[in-house]
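User: Predict structure, ligand adenosine monophosphate.
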Amino acid sequence: MHFVVCAKQIPDPETPPSAFKIDAATNKVVPAQGFQPVLSQFDGIAAEAALRIKESAGGDAKITVLSMGAESAQAAIKQVLAMGADEGVLLQDAAFDGGDSHTTAKVLAAAIKNLGDVDAVFCGRQSADWDMGQVGLLIAEELGWPVAILAKDVQIADSTMTTTRVLADGYETVAQALPAVVTVSNEFGEPRYPKLQQIMQAAKKTVTTQTHADLGLDPSEVGAAGSRLKLERLFIPEAGGMVELIVGDNPAEQARNLVAKLQADKVL
Amino acid sequence: MARNILVVGELDAGAVSSTTAELIGQATRLADGGQVSVTLLGSGAAGAAAAAFEAGADRAFTGDDAGYDNYNSDSWVSAVENAVGQASAEAVFIAQSVVGRDMGPRIAARLGSAVAMDCVDVTDDGGALKATRPCYGGNARATYGFATSPAVATIRAKAFDPIAPRAGASGETVDLGAPAASRTTIVGRELAEASGLQITDAPIVVSGGRGLGGPEGFEVVEALAAAFGTNRAAVGASRAACDLGWYPVSQQVGLTGKVVTPDLYVAIAISGASQHMAGCSGSKMIIAVNRDPDANIFSAAKYGIVGDYKQVVPALIEALKAAS
Ligand SMILES: Cc1cc2nc3c(=O)[nH]c(=O)nc-3n(C[C@H](O)[C@H](O)[C@H](O)COP(=O)(O)OP(=O)(O)OC[C@H]3O[C@@H](n4cnc5c(N)ncnc54)[C@H](O)[C@@H]3O)c2cc1C
Ligand SMILES: Nc1ncnc2c1ncn2[C@@H]1O[C@H](COP(=O)(O)O)[C@@H](O)[C@H]1O
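Assistant: Predicted complex:
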């Protein structure tokens, strides 16, 4: 079996709101001082899902990590390789810049077609920067494969992918024939933490780089040129007013004062 | 400029869901003389059409067939694609729900267009639709335009008001027929007992975080919720608390949990990370108890008490009891 994990590198989502800045002229996030870009959280979980299936198949599966991004995204690929994936492909090309979910999925789907023999694609439920939650579904549409989203459990056996997915008020288990795409949610559990030895091994694993030409894509179909959704403005929403900290000689008095405020505001 | 809009409706126990009515409401405001259509799929769809007309729809595309119950991606996408064609829709609105998260990208791809997910606003800007949505874990908002048509948007519950019901309004009903075959087999479903007040409906939500120190802290939070009165307050939790297994994931508030919009949100021992605020910043009022005066939660709160919840919360319970 051959699995693909789609892994994106993003600005650290744990950057405190006070350090989060936007450059209004370019509609881009200004990298926060002291915060390194990270592997998008859910993509680590997607890798964990693929690895567990590989292990339950007695190791009889190959896992390829795909990332579209800048040279720095090598670090995200290496992290998934250190977790246990086998090979990496960095999709790097100035022509990919300024794209949207559609062009991202177009590039990733072309890379998956290039690999030829892929049985299942594992994505995160959403990238933890733009929070869109589209690319997995769009890859499935590009490839004409079925897709299950928001997985908290995935099993693959007998050419069938069985996914338990998160609903608003419970879970649903669905079965789909391979090849298929799955997007994995945080309910799946924590990704493994690579050991030092695995990190050193990962450094030796192959990571190839591909451009639009390698994928047989025209520059007009990718990046800003091919995008359908146009970002017009990125901004920080206005904060509310100042908090009023309730004082008092002791917690009991503070509590009474707060309840009095709530009564005056007619929320009680 | 007149535009035809299709709303992908959802049924809630055979009735038009409240979010569907909100989406139809906004569609009537943006149609500008164009037609507003709605798809209704599942048992009871035909009967629900009347309510959709009262909510503002001109046309209902129905698939009154139990085969559409329990959203099955492929058959719903085919039915909606069919309706988009018949309605000549230039915009498609879908709730950001279990349905919308799956349907939005798939229908956009089928139509050769794009979707903006999880929108909190959709406006008409000189004839073009613009969609605004939170991103970067709630730290930022992004406004998008569409280079392709139809413009597809998944929209948050309570982002828009429904219109005042048009009593006795009627419209045209078009049958979409039986569901198309699907590549997905639903093997089983396990639904949590929806017992009592849900955090998404409750007028007051009291949430606890990692600062509670353990699952027993939630007993104190539950007691505070009860002190607001019978059936008034539901209990939520931060992701950190849920991840630690202190409270059920079904109660998680935030970006990857539920979005709540109560009149009053009470955050106990929650730091107020942007991804948590993404789920509660639409509350009418936020109050917070935290021992750290610099906690980010205070920047969103109207009132706050700096202190140990173990002292403050029991005092609050007493004060609420005394006041009622
Ligand atoms: C992609 C992504 C998605 C996420 N989705 C969500 C989500 O949906 N929901 C969510 O909640 N989080 C989410 N998070 C996690 C989020 O970033 C925070 O890590 C999380 O919200 C922190 O939870 P907390 O406030 O309970 O814990 P902490 O940040 O640890 O805060 C605990 C607070 O308790 C206070 N405290 C400690 N002891 C006491 C005491 N005795 N009395 C009073 N106060 C006390 C502390 O001062 C502190 O402010 C997400 C993160 C990422 C990256
Ligand atoms: N640039 C990228 N490179 C690799 N995978 C990506 C990229 N962008 C998105 N993905 C995958 O698609 C998922 C959903 O992304 P999004 O639709 O952007 O929220 C992510 O969790 C990744 O698995």
